[in-house]
Design goal:
The complex is a heteropentamer, with 1 copy of chain A, 1 copy of chain B, 1 copy of chain C and 2 copies of chain D.
Chain A lengths: L1 H35 L5 H5 L2 E2 L4 E2 L2 H32 L4 H15 L2 H15 L6 H25 L3 H9 L4 H29 L13 E2 L13 H11 L7 H32 L1
Antiparallel strand pairs in A: 1-2
Chain B lengths: L1 H42 L4 H6 L3 E2 L6 E2 L2 H32 L2 H16 L2 H20 L7 H26 L2 H9 L4 H12 L1 H17 L2 H6 L17 H9 L7 H36 L1
Chain D lengths: L5 E12 L2 E12 L3 E5 L6 H8 L9 E9 L2 E2 L7 H7 E4 L10 H11 L4 H14 L3 H4 L12 H14 L4 E5 L7 H14 L4 E5 L3 H7 L2 E6 L2 E7 H6 L4 H7 L5
Helix pairs in contact in D: 3-4, 3-6, 4-6, 6-7
The chains are: A mainly alpha, B mainly alpha, C alpha/beta, D alpha/beta.
The complex binds adenosine-5'-triphosphate (2 copies), magnesium ion (MG) (2 copies) and phosphate ion (PO4).
Chain lengths: 281, 296, 262, 253, 253
């Protein structure tokens, strides 16, 4: 009797744990989609909030998040790629590079709220940018940096050494071999890492809390030196700070759904790049 | 001389790349010194001992109290709860993925876990408010479900993907020889998993747990939204708590710069920083140890 | 170019709803101005003022002595505008047995002297206080008005809305919010607003009683301030003018706040 | 092949890894209380065949097996025997000694525990297995020592003890001495010869001398097929097949 | 060694990877317009030596090089020559063909572009290089085809064309045929023989027949030292050194 039961218990346990994990994902998606999709409409994503943010759309928040993510990419991508190039192409195994690598891993583990503080101290106060799109974008850029370095280095590492040697052997300088041969081969991998990192950055809230995000703004488009609305913060605000929380639930659900669609879309495009690339190999 | 220019460019590029490498150190050092500087400024006004052992956090009370113990305990409580949920689930799922699931199932489950990892923390916090909180409230008969338990469940969901991925790597890294030895004395898959594979992968699993803990300690938005944020000394899972991260998030916007309260928040951040640093270093130690062991 | 027409408004959660409505309508007449609004509490607004991160600091309380000193020290001259009047309402669950409460009892409830409702309603159930976080203007207003320290067990909610939400479901809860949060697009929230008895023997007055408010009879009524750094005055004057215009005044009253005729 | 009682056998066995056929119609029989050596060049399928007998392939996803494998008259795959029972009755010793990263004691105890041997009997069985495997004298003073600290030869004897402790009917050995020095090898050969009294033994080896020293019967495999099987002496002295001859003379492999 | 004009040479060259000395006092000379074969057992340092001549070790961190390497009379390391210039003048073909993942045209064009060859001359040079490398007929119809789609032998010839296009003075080849089938190998050998009119060629090979077929001079290395160098015929027929003899007769390596 016991003998027959045990395998069921064993499988049951593992299936249960795995099932629960899947259930979490499905529950999240189901709840957001079932309750959010009714709020979703063209008007919702193409108009500004109205009536004290109890009606209307989320256009300024969408624009804010897009601009913010763009700034993040513009800051973190070149910087991160250069650093990854240094580590993978130039650095020797010295104490200095070991410190750099350790720093990167530790930066990746620093809580995002601490990046927020750093952004506040450095950009908002130190560099006198005030609470602004630029300050928040720079902060998110710093946060994304370690991930971009790690993924880019991984992509560079996969370029075979024979490619570098081929370039050098026809008289290219090391920089030329990196620029003309190594980087082009590494692009798909780098792009995957970049997009995944940006999808993470797009969903971050803590680092922008005190560096520039605003509750409400009466104009959709933003400027670098001005405050902005952002999807994740808008969701936070609608669900905790708004004067009519119950009444704006549908808006909150709609915002959450849009946010998650943006993030998943970025993720899917990363999977797609990865898949396309693996097919070619 | 074109060649000379090309070689100059090469040198300049090398210098630039190297600079960016150094900048990374500068950033970490910058964060560290920013925290240190402000923490020192804080300790000039409040005794470190009072800060660490004080049981009251009321910066705008009269007199102001800067005791971070309740925050520390809250963070620990929520993290502990999260790990109690996430560790068994994570190890179970990772075991299923590495030893039980077929290739097809795996190719569905892996992206699903990556998807779960990418759900933004506000979205999770939001569901904590609208779904889990009311759920907990109605089950336990409380007025609202914004408490430590809610936060713990949500943090568990957030740290699960990390724990699953790293644990799975560890389990799959266990040499086949161990498993075969176990099977050859008549053990079945389950016995092998529990008694041989998991113990052999222990360092890797520990690393996974550490990374999960790091994630949970540092998470802000979810706990800010879901735990009710009462700064009183936490009494249990069914009470509202206020973690270190939530405290910073709530109060940083509303303090005048360069005041004691402002410095106090940096001091909390410094403690948070050290905690995550420690957890990451421990995690990394085990990851490395496990790598060595894998190579052997 | 347009940076000159960019206004940051931060502060009082009590006023944020009003400020958003004002900004929204202001945009209809001044499309060239962009107004960014954040709530968070009066303390946040005043802190932002001190930090140079806002053009208008909304506050539901006056500046305290320390803040005045700090403003002086930092060399930030300001102008103060009182643009509306608020009545702080005490709210309870809609099935709560009492309709009114006197100030003395209220103080004992809020400072934790009464742990249960027994002295007031006869029911031995624990009192749950839904308060605001410490930087809230309302929080400090109630504290100074009642001359108490709040009970340690008071929940510190981040906004008025959260208090309303909490009270809706909590039969033994009591909380305080700005009058603007009672009315919601004309529909009344499913909660009960307690009438306040200022002195033993005097009549109970509701914070929704416009006439009583106009006569300064409600115990917890207060002006709503806007502090503006002098350097921003030119930039924001158009917005202030709009608040004072007929359209602005109408928005204020329809939002549930009061205008005190000078 | 001789007329002995056949303990273990395979009939028309075929095995594919994905699309690659590795065993092609293998029919082979192992007589009771005899040592059979399985020889053949690298990659010919010796290990693959051996692993069929204790169902080690069950765990790999894309393996397909056809044919019949019998222990006495019970079908190892198609009958009522479960995989764990098959593995208990048919023990295995691997090329690389693979003790668990636990104590010497626990290494043997594990199998006993798994197979529900009562606690009070275990110590005796462990001691006995260690003695049978000629390692008792070297380890008796510290059974709690981690098995990984033993020398390669000791580890391999421990693995044999682990197999022996369960009193299997057959012991399969996949190049058990290939990683060992001559002295350890000699000890293990001595042990194998002693074990044959109680067990049926199949041993894969690359060492022709070893096969001749210990095996009663030798089976020569080539490219997934059994080319020739018979008395060891006959296989080495008068191989019938040209391939066998070339192989045992050391011309390839 | 013969009296020819010496194009490339190393004197008292030593090389360490970290603490491990891989080249021990190597002195060797390669005469102009001759093919020199470099032979020796695996791991003796042939590739390492070859790579010294076009400064491929520059990129590795813990490599230390001593001694003098001369192209004509210019020192490759210590003089005014930059690494880039050295590599342009001393071309290299690797064991595994390593075309860029670009079109056939771009593979050759890249080196020309980098080295500032005017655009209008490039097409001619490319065609010429492809013809010189006996691959023109096979690719002339589609120069835009990705080089990775060529066969292994074609790729290797493309790599030779890529080196040749820059008109280097020396071409170093590290086992250029080891990954190729006999037909491709024959084509490349034919090509090498033809190239020697214009270039000085050093080729590492494991194939004794190949060395005898194409090399004018042969150098035998063993454990990081040059054991013997001389006319190919002499090295293979009457080696002076016992080690050389054993090696060329196929007794080890
Ligand atoms: N898991 C596997 N998947 C695919 N092919 C495999 C797998 N295991 C073994 N093979 C292939 O099956 C063939 C037989 O392998 P096997 O290990 O049985 O050879 P062997 O005779 O034991 O060789 P050796 O003497 O080297 O141990 C080999 O060609 C091998 O590459
Ligand atoms: N990057 C390196 N770091 C450390 N040791 C190295 C490195 N590259 C080569 N070696 C060692 O240097 C020695 C010579 O290597 P090299 O590649 O020159 O040999 P080879 O003669 O070309 O051998 P083969 O014929 O196998 O190509 C070898 O022992 C090798 O292990
Ligand atoms: Mg084998
Ligand atoms: Mg070589
Ligand atoms: O949000 P407050 O108005 O209470 O400061």
């Amino acid at each position: 009797m016991m003998k027959k039961l045990t395998p069921i218990i064993e499988w049951g346990t593992l299936l249960l744990t795995t099932g629960l994990v899947c259930f979490f994902l499905l529950a999240i998606l189901w709840d957001l989609i079932s309750k959010g999709s009714s709020s979703l409409s063209w008007a919702f994503i193409s108009t500004s909030p109205t009536d004290g943010m109890t009606k209307g759309g989320i256009l300024p928040a969408i624009i804010g998040t897009v601009l913010l993510t763009l700034i993040t990419a513009l800051i973190a991508a070149p910087f991160g790629i250069c650093c990854a190039i240094y580590l993978n192409e130039y650095a020797t195994d010295s104490w200095l590079t070991r410190i750099i690598r350790a720093s990167i891993r530790n930066l990746a583990g620093v809580p995002s709220i601490i990046y927020g503080l750093f952004g506040l101290a450095l950009f908002v106060q130190g560099l006198q940018m005030g609470t602004s799109l630029l300050a928040a974008g720079l902060t998110l850029g710093l946060l994304s940096l370690p991930y971009i370095i790690i993924t880019t280095e991984e992509a560079l590492r996969r370029v075979p050494n024979s490619m570098r040697e081929a370039a050098l052997a026809v008289g290219a300088t090391q920089f030329e071999s990196i620029r003309d041969v190594v980087l082009p081969s590494a692009v798909p991998g780098m792009l995957t890492g970049l997009v995944l990192t940006l999808s993470r950055a797009a969903g971050e809230t803590a680092p922008i809390l005190f560096t520039g995000v605003a509750f409400y703004i009466n104009k959709p488009a933003g400027y670098l030196n001005q405050e902005f609305m952002a999807l994740p913060y808008h969701l936070y605000m609608l669900s905790t700070q708004h004067q009519a929380i119950e009444q704006v639930r549908p808006l909150a659900y709609g915002t959450a759904l849009v946010l998650i669609i943006v993030v998943f879309f970025l993720n899917l495009s990363a999977f797609y790049i990865r898949y396309q690339h693996s097919k070619h190999e | 001389m074109k060649l000379a220019i090309r070689e100059k460019t090469d040198q300049a590029a090398k210098l630039l790349f190297r600079m960016t490498g150094l900048m990374v150190i500068a950033i970490l050092a910058g964060i560290f010194f920013m925290l240190l500087w402000n923490t020192i400024a804080f300790f000039l006004k409040v005794k470190p001992w009072d800060f660490i052992t004080g049981t009251q956090w009321s910066p705008s009370g009269t007199p102001a109290n800067y005791g971070m113990l309740p925050l520390l305990v809250s963070t620990s409580l929520v993290t502990l709860g999260a790990m109690c949920i996430a560790i068994p689930l994570g190890i179970g799922t990772a075991s299923f993925l590495s030893d039980y699931a077929g290739r097809k199932l795996k190719s569905v489950l892996k992206p699903a876990i990556e998807m779960l990892a990418s759900v933004p923390s506000v979205a999770i916090g939001f569901l904590g408010i609208v779904v889990l909180g009311p759920g907990i409230a109605s089950i336990t008969g409380q007025s609202n479900g914004l408490n430590a338990l809610n936060g713990a469940v949500l943090l568990a969901i957030m740290s699960l993907p990390t724990i699953i991925t790293v644990t799975q790597d560890a389990l799959e890294g266990v040499p086949n020889a161990y498993k075969e030895a176990s099977y050859s004395v008549g053990a079945n898959r389950w016995q092998t998993l529990i008694q041989v594979t998991i113990p052999a992968a222990a360092p890797g699993i520990l690393a996974a747990v550490m990374l999960g803990v790091g994630r949970a300690i540092g998470e802000t938005m979810t706990v800010l939204m879901a735990t009710g944020n009462a700064s009183a000394f936490p009494k249990g899972f069914f009470h509202s708590v206020r973690t270190m991260t939530a405290t910073i998030a709530i109060e940083m916007g509303e303090v005048p710069y360069q005041t004691t309260h402002y410095y106090a928040l940096f001091a909390i951040a410094a403690v948070l920083f050290l905690m995550t640093l420690l957890v990451n270093i421990v995690g990394e130690y085990f990851v490395n140890k496990y790598r060595k062991y894998q190579a052997a | 170019s347009d940076a000159g027409k960019f206004i940051k408004v931060k502060g009082s959660d009590t006023e944020v709803k009003l400020a958003v409505s004002l900004a929204e309508n202001f945009y209809k007449v001044h499309a060239d101005f962009s107004v960014a609004i954040s709530g968070g509490g009066s303390g946040l607004g005043i802190a932002s003022l001190l930090n140079g991160q806002t053009d208008i600091a909304n506050s539901s309380r006056p500046l305290n002595a320390e803040e005045i000193v700090l403003l002086k020290a930092k060399g930030i001259p300001i102008r103060t505008v009182i643009f509306a009047e608020d009545a702080t309402a005490f709210i309870v669950h809609k099935d709560f047995p009492l309709d009114s409460i006197d100030v003395m009892s209220l103080a004992k409830v809020l400072n934790g002297q009464y742990k249960t409702w027994k002295p007031l309603t006869g029911k031995d159930i624990q009192i749950n206080i839904y308060g605001r976080q410490s930087n809230s203007g309302t929080h400090s207003f109630i504290r100074s008005k009642l001359k108490i320290e709040f009970s340690r067990d008071a929940k510190e909610m981040n906004g008025n809305a959260q208090i309303v939400e909490g009270i809706k479901h909590d039969r033994s809860g009591i909380g305080y919010v700005g009058a603007g949060y009672i009315l919601n697009n004309g529909t009344e929230q499913p909660i009960k607003v307690l009438k306040i008895i200022a002195k033993p023997g005097s009549i109970a007055i509701s914070p929704l009683d416009i006439k009583a408010i106009a006569a300064h009879q409600y115990y917890f009524q207060r002006p709503l301030y806007q502090f503006i750094p002098l350097t921003s005055w030119n930039k924001v004057s158009a917005f202030i003018d709009f608040e004072k215009s007929a359209a602005g005044q109408k928005i204020i009253t329809t939002s549930g706040y009061y205008i005190i005729p000078k | 092949m001789s007329k002995e009682h056949i303990k273990l056998s395979a009939t028309a066995a075929k095995l594919w890894f994905g699309n690659k056929q590795v065993l092609k119609n293998v029919t082979v029989a192992f007589p009771q209380n005899k040592i059979t050596a399985l020889i053949g060049p690298s990659g010919c399928g010796k290990s693959t065949l051996l692993r069929c007998f204790n169902r080690m392939h069950d765990l790999s996803a894309d393996v397909r097996i056809e044919g019949d494998f019998l222990l006495e008259d019970q079908n190892l795959y198609k009958g009522k025997l479960s995989a764990t029972e098959v593995r208990r009755r048919i023990g295995m010793v691997f090329q690389q000694a693979n003790p668990f990263p636990k104590s010497i004691y626990e290494n043997i105890n594990y199998g006993l525990k798994i197979n529900n041997i009562p606690k009070d009997q275990r110590l005796g069985i462990i001691e006995n297995a260690l003695k049978e495997s000629y390692i008792w004298d070297e380890v008796k003073d510290d059974l709690q020592k981690p098995a990984t600290r033993l020398s390669g030869g000791q580890q391999q004897r421990l693995c044999i003890a682990r197999a022996v402790a369960l009193r299997p009917e057959v012991i399969l050995m996949d190049e058990p001495c290939s990683a060992l020095d001559p002295i350890s090898t000699a000890k293990i050969e001595e042990l194998i010869l002693k074990l044959k009294k109680d067990y049926t033994i199949v041993i894969v080896t690359h060492n022709m001398q070893q096969a001749q020293r210990i095996a009663d019967q030798t089976v020569f495999m080539y490219l997934g097929e059994i080319i020739e099987a018979g008395d060891t002496k006959q296989i080495f002295d008068k191989p019938a097949n040209e391939l066998t001859k070339n192989y045992v003379k050391g011309h390839f492999g």
